[in-house]
Design goal:
By secondary structure, this protein is of the alpha/beta class. The protein has 14 helices and 14 strands. It has 2 domains: 53-179 and 319-386, Response regulator (Rossmann fold), CATH 3.40.50.2300; 181-308, Response regulator (Rossmann fold, 3-Layer(aba) Sandwich).
Length: 416
């Protein structure tokens, strides 16, 4: 963003925020999702711990944003990221109040659209109360949005972006706690060969950075391991009739269809494949990990296998307790990425606290928060441990296997 444009944008956001300031309460839900800054405070208040009023007002406002699809066909996963992050933030509002700050969530709906993600990112970097971002769901949205975060030195921690290129572009602001496609894809392919004993495969992808990137990794591993690739085709996401590609599949009769893409398309593809008489395996990546998958595919979802970069938090007693608390607090079903949204938020908040301490108790700059988050070492989240390498990848990230059975996804274990 050019300097002149940024100044004009900041001025407009400030005017809008002043109009809204009287509507906000101290809770984390107070921030709006319509792009208006929820506070009239600006960078001039950073580090100001003087003045009258309650503890939360003395140090000013700290906003942590989320960016994920909160509307549209992918909203179940986007809402899970936002709700998990919100659950974490709500637990720490009092802690920040004791430090003298008003901590709030600032959720943004990127609609799984790169243009909207970038527009939201521009708004976020213009509001200097925003000190971190939990997001995104879609790699294709995260990559262009991260260009703006880098300009604004605004730290991003992703619960779900697996595209390899995201952390290969040298951006210091970009981080993720999940595994990359070059870990997930090969593990999926090896599981298909070694556990499912497939000899040949047909690969379909949705032409997105995530879907095609994952399919490319699976294809490369299949070819390396001697699994014959009978077809590799792209589809247009959002279509309702996939007969053209499925007719090719039926003519080849592969042992497995691997789909690189998300559940709205994947559910339709497997349903239509079964309707055509396909009897083989159907497998995908973490994009198939949603309770909506069964609703879309119906009985055809039975037996669908997917890898995920997010594990099942309910495998431990502590995790089961957390899951019940989360469902009660959010009034939402537990989706896998909720706990990763939770862990991402705590990684950012821990960085903010460290930056506050290093800044003598005053409101830190974005650069200070970025440095603290980037230097995260051996942080034990609710599910995953986090240590970022120089690129922003998590050294403890792993890959897991799930299978849809009995109308729900069942955790099978780590993908070895």
């Amino acid at each position: 963003m050019k300097k002149g444009t940024q100044f004009a944008f900041l001025s407009a956001a400030l005017v809008a925020s002043v109009a809204l300031a009287g509507c906000n309460s101290g809770g984390s839900n107070a921030a709006k999702t319509d792009g208006a800054a929820p506070s009239g405070e600006t960078s001039t208040q950073q580090g100001n711990t003087s003045g009258s009023g309650g503890a939360a007002a003395n140090g000013g406002k700290i906003l942590i944003a989320t960016q994920s699809p909160l509307s549209g066909s992918q909203s179940s996963l986007g809402e899970a990221i936002k709700s998990g992050a919100e659950f974490a933030l709500n637990k720490r509002v009092d802690e920040f109040k004791q430090l003298g700050f008003d901590l709030q969530l600032f959720p943004q709906d990127d609609q799984a659209d790169p243009k909207i993600g970038v527009s939201n990112a521009e708004m976020l970097i213009s509001n200097l109360d925003v000190l971190g971002v939990v997001g995104h769901l879609n790699t294709g949205v995260a990559i262009p949005s991260s260009v703006k975060y880098e300009e604004g030195k605004l730290v991003m921690v992703s619960p779900a972006n697996t595209g390899v290129v995201l952390t290969e572009e040298g951006k210091k602001t970009v981080h993720r706690i999940c595994a990359r496609d070059d870990a997930q894809g090969p593990r999926a392919a090896m599981y298909a060969k070694n556990t499912l004993n497939v000899k040949n495969a047909f690969l379909i992808h949705d032409k997105t950075a995530y879907g095609q990137g994952l399919a490319d990794q699976v294809k490369a591993q299949f070819e390396k391991d001697g699994v014959q690739v009978l077809g590799y085709e792209g589809i247009t996401s959002g279509e309702k009739d996939f007969s053209a590609v499925l007719n090719q599949v039926m003519s080849k009769n592969p042992d497995i269809i691997f789909f690189g893409g998300l559940y709205p398309d994947g559910g339709i593809i497997i349903k239509q494949a079964r309707d055509k008489g396909y009897k083989g395996y159907f497998m995908g990546g973490d994009g198939l990990d949603s309770s909506e998958m069964v609703k879309i595919a119906g009985p055809a979802a039975e037996g669908v296998i997917f890898t995920s970069v997010a594990g099942d938090v309910t495998q431990s007693e502590e995790g089961k307790k957390w899951a019940e608390e989360y469902k009660k607090a959010s009034n939402k079903p537990l989706e896998t990425y909720a706990v990763y949204g939770y862990d991402c938020m705590n990684v950012i908040l821990n960085g903010v606290v460290e930056a506050i301490k290093a800044n003598g108790g005053k409101k830190p700059s974005r650069e200070q928060v970025l440095d603290a988050v980037h230097n995260t070492k051996d942080f034990q989240g609710q599910f995953t441990k986090v240590t970022f390498d120089e690129k922003g990848d998590n050294k403890f990230a792993d890959v897991f296997i799930y299978k849809y059975e009995g109308g729900k996804s069942n955790f099978l274990g780590k993908a070895e």
